[in-house]
Amino acid sequence: MTTTANTRAIKAGSDIPWQDRPILRLNDAAALLGGVSRSNLYRMQAAGQLVFVKIGGRTGIKTSSVIEYLASLEAIPAGALRERGAKAVPA
């Protein structure tokens, strides 16, 4: 449950673009990465894809590691995806 103080802190921080924040909360990083789970974030950390930090008992993710991870992803070629449930057209 979010307290009033936490809500104010979240709203105050929202004036700063996420790219300019040195540390992201786990939930914010998860949302930026397409809604992955917290468990998946920890797997990504274990694989060396994200850098976690502890500040005052709270866990955060270095924004620079999220940016580097996103930059490392390969683009999907045009036409490589098809709609869910669509049948492949024989060549």
TrEMBL record:
Domain Helix-turn-helix: 24-72
InterPro entries noted in UniProt: HTH_17
Top-rank taxon: Bacteria
A Pfam family: HTH_17
Protein's name according to its UniProt entry: Helix-turn-helix domain-containing protein
Species the sequence originates in: Agrobacterium albertimagni AOL15
